């Protein structure tokens, strides 16, 4: 109560204007002590400015130690569809993958938000353990994981999804990658393209979007057809060294891969295709902000759809920039195996440009206020 409010207001204005302020008078020192105390308390409050500052410091520390992250990963587990989530929300003691009617599923999840949080936590832990290979004897899907940093965002209907930065052990910096790609006497460019195309794609696996739509509609007519977003992934057959392509083992593996590709395409069609909308149906009780969709005032999609497509991965000979192969303009890039395992919307982006780092850092820490 002894703080001079006029001095505090003046200090606040100077710092808001970007001035670097050093306390000189006793009153200014007292104000700074109060600010430091508030800053300390705010560090324990989710979404506070101080906690965002701590998060940015943590990310910059990881960048300083490991270099630039290699991947930006997003996924949104569907709590109202996944059998594990509905098992957490229900009272049954025995797990059964057979789902209840749609209305009952929504009611179970809405009445038990803890189950949704448990499910999300379980899926993230399994992703980190099995897909990234953290703490395991096997490497991760993208390489040996050096570090990861994630932030949780709450969507409009209160479900959770994850945004994560991933560092790969012994990976090169964006500048080193650019220098090697630009070297005409090196085969690094070919190997880099092979690596990128092996772990993420920007198109369907079995055909164009129209072809996949037609196939999915045909499958829906079959009585035994199940929505893949409401099922668990089937493990592949036991691996063998045989490659004769004639024995039962080879046929089982070939059949599994065929089912895998069709399932991934079905999941991508249901979960990853973006559809622009100008607004939600008007309602007098809703504010203008609640009614707006993904189209901004200039008529452009805020999610930057449709995306530019490339028939093959291209390398700019002047800058070394990579234009990744992308056959569909209405879906983002994704990793088929991750889509198959998580059965939900995913977005996997390679971070070969250092200019994206500050934007991603600000985006990740801003999400903390929504989590």
Task: Summarize the structure in words.
The protein is of the alpha+beta class and 371 residues long. It has two domains: 1-42, no CATH class; 48-367, no CATH class. Helix content is 44%, strand content 9%. Strands 2-3-1-6 form a four-stranded antiparallel sheet, with helices on both faces. Strands 4-5 form a two-stranded antiparallel sheet. 19% of the residues are buried.
- The number of strands is 6
Proportion in β-strands: 5-15%
Strand order of the largest sheet: 2-3-1-6
Low-confidence stretches are: 282-291
Instruction: Describe the global form.
Output: globular
Helical amount? 40-55%
Helix/sheet category: alpha+beta
Number of domains: 2
> Number of helix segments?
13
For the terminal residues, how far apart are their CA atoms?
34 Å
Q: Please give the radius of gyration in angstroms.
A: 25 Å
Helix and strand element order: HHHEHHHEEHHHHHEEHEH
Q: What is the overall pLDDT average?
A: 85
Major sheet details: 4 strands, antiparallel
């Amino acid at each position: 109560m002894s703080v001079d409010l006029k001095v505090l207001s003046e200090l606040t204005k100077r710092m808001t204007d970007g001035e670097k302020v050093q306390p000189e008078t006793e009153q200014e020192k007292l104000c700074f002590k109060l600010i430091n105390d508030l800053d300390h308390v705010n560090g324990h409050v989710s979404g506070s400015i101080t906690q965002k500052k701590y998060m940015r410091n943590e990310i910059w520390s990881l960048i300083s130690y490991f270099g630039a992250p290699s991947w930006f990963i997003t996924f949104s587990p569907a709590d109202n569809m996944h059998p594990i989530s509905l098992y957490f929300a229900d009272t049954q003691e025995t797990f059964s993958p057979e789902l209840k009617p749609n209305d009952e599923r929504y009611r179970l999840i809405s009445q038990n938000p803890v189950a949704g949080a448990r499910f999300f936590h379980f899926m993230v832990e399994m992703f980190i353990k099995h897909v990234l290979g953290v703490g395991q004897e096997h490497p991760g899907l993208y390489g040996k994981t050096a570090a990861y940093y994630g932030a949780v965002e709450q969507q409009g209907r209160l479900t959770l999804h994850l945004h994560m930065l991933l560092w790969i052990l012994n990976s090169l910096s964006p500048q080193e990658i650019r220098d090697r790609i630009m070297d005409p006497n090196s085969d690094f460019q070919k190997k880099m393209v092979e690596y990128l195309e092996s772990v993420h794609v920007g198109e369907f696996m079995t055909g164009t979007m129209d072809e996949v739509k037609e196939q999915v509609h045909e499958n829906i007519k079959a009585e035994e057809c199940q929505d893949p977003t409401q099922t668990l992934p089937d493990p592949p057959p036991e691996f063998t060294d045989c490659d004769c392509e004639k024995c039962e083992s080879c046929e089982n593996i070939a059949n599994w891969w065929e089912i895998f590709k069709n399932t991934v395409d079905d999941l991508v069609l249901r979960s990853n295709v973006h559809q622009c909308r100008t607004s939600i149906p008007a309602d007098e009780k809703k504010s203008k902000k609640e009614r707006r969709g993904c189209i901004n005032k200039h008529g452009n999609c805020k999610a930057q759809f449709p995306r530019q497509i490339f028939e093959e991965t291209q390398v700019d000979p002047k800058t070394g920039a990579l234009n990744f192969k992308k056959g569909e303009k209405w879906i983002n890039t994704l990793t088929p195996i991750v889509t198959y395992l998580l059965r939900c919307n995913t977005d996997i982006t390679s971070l070969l440009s250092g200019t994206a780092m500050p934007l991603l850092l600000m985006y990740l820490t801003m999400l903390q206020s929504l989590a």
